[in-house]
Amino acid sequence: MVTELKSWREQNYYELLEVGSQASDEEIRIAYEKLKTIYSLLTPGITILFTPEEVKQIQDKMEEAYRVLRDPRSQREYDLVMQGAWGKPIAPPPHPLAIRRALNTQQIREALGADEVSWSGESLGKIRRFLKLNIDELALEIKISKHHLEAIEAEAIAALPAPVYLKGFLRSFAKALGLDPRRVSEEYLTRISEKGYTRE
Fold first, then answer.
1. What is the C-alpha to C-alpha distance for residues 20 and 200, in angstroms, rounded to an integer?
2. What is the CA 168 to chain-centroid distance, rounded?
3. Residue range 13-70 in CATH 3.40.50
């Protein structure tokens, strides 16, 4: 359950739904339906444990996990992403996830060297370097392979994962940089879609 020792934010899709990698469609469906009932704003006492916003975020992640794990192709790609770029399990970060304050507008403009801010791979790279974050360490911290972080910064369309994963990667990347996850993901996805990113 998402209230166990590992935070729901850190859990992978299997951990979140409490199923194994070989679970059947029916087992995945039952697990999803069970958790959907538990993590509802109608459940007595749920708002003592989580804010309404957190409940919505948990529900969104559960829905995404259910959609991915029930589709064999999406599940295979997810498993590869979980293993990292070199086919080995991603090592846990050596330290707890760093908590960074949100950057203010002036800091962002200073980092980007521009008054107008729009989120692209280049601007994310500039913010990362402004914060003096090594890409290898960041990859371990947010549990996204270095390969994918580099592809995001370079806007390497062919190397980017499917949208269902990319959106989550962008949000995690943005949070680690102290940026607005929603704005970053929306602007980045719009930008690369205009450049031909259409993977399904």
1. 25
2. 3
3. no
Q: Which amino acid is at 75?
A: Q
What ranges do the domains of the chain cover? 13-70, 105-194
Burial class (CB in 10 A: 0-12, 13-18, 19+), 21: exposed
Angstrom CA distances, 36 to 30, 39, 40, 41, 195, stand at 10, 5, 6, 10, 37
Three-state helix/strand/coil letters over 37-51? HHCCCCCCCHHHHCC
pLDDT tens for residues 145-195? 888 899 999 999 888 888 878 888 999 899 888 888 999 999 999 999 998
What is the CATH number assigned to the segment(s) 105-194?
Answer: 1.10.260.40
- How far apart (Å, rounded) are the C-alpha atoms in residues 50 and 37? 15
**Verdict on whether the full-model pTM lies above 0.70:** no
Q: In the prediction, which pLDDT does 123 show?
A: 92
